[in-house]
Specification:
Blueprint (H helix, E strand, L loop, with lengths): L14 H9 L11 E11 L4 E10 L15 E4 L2 E6 L10 E3 L12 E6 L5 E7 L2 E4 L2 H5 L7 E5 L7 E7 L2 E7 L4 E6 L2 E8 L3 E5 L9 E7 L2 E10 L5 E14 L9 E11 L5 E5 L4 E20 L21 E11 L3 E4 L3 E7 L5 E8 L7 E9 L7 E8 L3 E7 L25 H4 L6 H10 L5 H4 L4 E5 L5 E13 L2 E16 L5 E8 L11 E3 L6 E14 L5 E14 L12 E3 L1 E7 L9 E7 L14 E5 L4 E3 L4 E7 L20 E7 L6 E11 L6 E7 L2 E7 L4 E11 L5 E11 L5 E8 L4 E8 L7 E8 L2 E12 L7 E9 L10 E10 L5 E6 L4 E7 L4 E7 L3 H4 L14 H9 L6 E8 L3 E6 L5 E6 L5 E6 L4 E4 L10
Parallel strand pairs: 8-11
Antiparallel strand pairs: 1-2, 2-3, 4-12, 4-18, 5-8, 6-7, 9-10, 10-11, 12-13, 13-14, 15-16, 16-17, 17-18, 17-21, 18-19, 19-22, 20-21, 20-34, 22-23, 23-24, 24-25, 25-26, 26-27, 27-28, 28-29, 29-30, 30-31, 31-36, 32-35, 33-34, 33-40, 36-37, 37-41, 38-44, 39-40, 41-42, 42-45, 43-44, 45-46, 46-47, ...
Amino acid sequence: MHAVLSDGYFKPQSPDVWSMIKYGDANIDYYSGRLGLNIPIYTYDDPAFKIPISIDYASNGFQPGASIGVVGMGWYLNVGGAITREVRGIRDDAIKETFDWRWGANENETLKWDQIVYPDGVPGSWVYARSVRIDGYAQNYFNSVPQDSLNFVYTGAAGQEYMPYWVNHNNDRQGIETEPDIFHFKFMDYSGSFILQPNRQIKVFNTNTPAGEFEIKFDMDNSQPSLSKFVIITGNKTKYYFEYPITCQTQSDISSSLDTGFNFTWKLTRIEAPNGETVRFVYNKQQADYTTITPVINIDKIVLSNISGNELPPEHQIQDPQNMPSSKFTVSNSVHEHLLDSIIIENRANIVFTYNFNSLLASVQVYNNTDESPVKTCTCEYVKTTGNRLVHFLKKVNLSDVGQYAMDYYDETAQYEHDHTFKVDQYGYFNNNDTYAKKTPSADLQNIAEDLRTLRPSSETHTRMGMLKALHYPTGGYSNFIYEQNTAFHQGKNTNVGGLRIKQIDTYSKEGKQTQNRKFSYCQKDDSNKSSGKILQYPGYYFKYTAASQGVYLVDKEGKQYSSGVIIDREIVSSLNNIGFSQNSYIEYLRVVEEIRKLTNDIKPISITEYNFHSADGVLSDGGLPTEAYEAISNNRLYSFDNWRLEMELAPSSEINEYMRVTSTFTGGKLRSKTEYAEDLDHPVKHESYSYGYYQSEDPINVYTAYLCQAVNHLYRTNAIYQNQKITELYNKDSVLIYNNETKYLVNDLGRTSAVVQTDSKGDEIREMYSYLDRVPAYPTEIIKTNKGNVISAMKIDYEQQSNAEDHYTPLKVWKGAVGVAPLNIEYRPDCIYSHYDTHGNPRQVVDKNGKTTCYFWGYNGRHIVAKVENSTYNILLGYGIGTTYSEALPADVEAQLRNDEEENFIVTTYTYKPLVGITSITDPSGHSVYYEYNDSGKLKVIRDDKGKVLKSYDYHIVTDNQ
């Protein structure tokens, strides 16, 4: 959100966490114009866990104040996950934060002794002040408080001098804030947001998977609030633990700070599968320090008056006009984070991360649980600049099984500006121009605001410094990247906006011959001279308003009515905002056209694709609802339970607009339509349109507060959306529609797909219907597919709960249904029966539809089948060790016993593996073996028979092997 002045926490997470939350898995983002690239490092994958590791690129340009992560400028290590938060009011986990009483701005009230008492009843120290102690919203989460007694305290924050709170009925000088924080999560394939609610309830919303399936638990010890933690449980009952909090500390270079740091990030520390298997993320060695610095021009004038409007004497004023602070300074926030040391998959794998002395990623090594040497390795190489600022660039990524990626950057050898420079545009991007900061401040603050707006232009060439110029692939080919300045059609004209967008990508073979040209244009459909860009957040610099805290109709001891309070007149000009560092984009492109050619100068493109997006504009959106909104209250007044009144009046000259009072919409950035053309935009080939619906559309949660110099009602919308329709149209070479298909998606109350209905041009309907297990809502129990109302396939699954874990359910029976009937008339017959599971969730016996029984021995700690036995049952094989899950291959004596038992006549096939690499041998029932050999990179090299004869061999020629 856009406050009058930022609290200083511009990027309160480490660069890698911030990028992972903002960008997710980086790909070209047409909606924002941002180039995104992904270099896969390794993915651990088994039935319980899938853990991808990659190095991703996402950058809009050089921001001198931004810190650089563990893989150099513009790149980030995408692994694990994190929960981050945006503070609303005070932090949810705050304990007994001290604020002045509602009239406390004039510091003229009687002091009072009072004792701090923690919510759990433990008394603390005595204090002597006018203070009121406020707990964060988490105390309302743990123990719901009556919300019938609203009061407010003085905070001094610009634009929100007063903060409402719910009064503690047992102590009128204690209370709980009214506004919950917004938390965001991103881990593996999951992302979304949530807020705490009373009585240990948590609202999950805006997710990329069914929101209703998430369970979230929050835990905090009031005596150690900095050690708070979360557990997120997904629809398949896997638990993700976020137990490593990371603090951020903010300070200014013109004043000392008592800020010791607060939690803004909780990193993923553990994953627990329903079968009890675990993964641990270990952070225990090297610490990295990240600082984001923002240059500030700021003048803040405050005058206090009594309730009659008479200015208070100097000794009761907050400011001394003769001793005003400097108007030019920097604000920094610092994050101290222990780097990821290893990922330990219990009894299966260990992924080790090492770093150089600059806290840059040096290597990733993947070990199995049997070999001393890593089975896969990634190493990183860097170059650094000289000058006012040391900048590291990721230069090479060497993958043992793939080869080498190499990178070139714009102005790679240039000298880079120091991080506290004032040479930045309105969005924090480098422009090499600090004229505005050298001017003598005008007495008229509106003139200074105009300078901040007009004397900080964007500069494409300077913003481009350090951006990725070329990426060389292991195959020997490479791609070149060309960028251009962001633009938006704003106030009737095209306007430059901070940051760059991708303009062109040219790809070449290893011989240097061009193989593809991609061009991106960002213009409106009806007028190609108008940018399709739209500004979502625009900086405001000048604010003028009055805030009055007044007791009305008060009665003294003698029964006489009187009024009390203070009036604050405030005028501010400031460049202190966090738009350029916001996790929400400040610009969007509603239409983007991509043209693909073989050669750059080819006249006709091979293909043209047009993308249209829904706007995130929460004011003039196309039907989308903003996730948060601040609605002004009538007369701009808030009332306390005891007849005090907070009144705020905003001067017309203040630079506040409606866009500052809303966040992005739920549908913002969602694809509206995609059209493929042949040769030009007059010849469509295929058109797809998309629409979205809400499946969690409850009434907004609303609380009263002061925000942007007004008394407002703060609305939280906890909706979740899903794609409810897709229409596909196909055209012939004459652009005549020849086929269309409508697909509708229905979801259940949790948000999981319950039906998919496809209707084609002839009106024929194909319908798929899904049902799910109540206890584990991600598990399907029935899938029926019909054509024109008749069943064409049907399957039903019965589950059983395993004894080793509460949420461990495994398939018991799979049923197949008869076809050619109506869904209500389906008759099911058994298709497969699974039984005798081990603790990992592996079946040891399977009976097919014909009654044939196959049994399995499991090894390598439950990861692989080491023996398949036919012509027997589990009960018979109990005496042969089938009840044991082996740590490695099937023991030789057990295999010999199985193969040599003449009485039972077992049909035995055995398997061996190199863990995390592949199968190494298969021995068939006759005793003949086939062997598989791998090179040092883990690639299959040779297949031999049991006599050593080569059956197949493989050669790999990676261009970068010798570079």
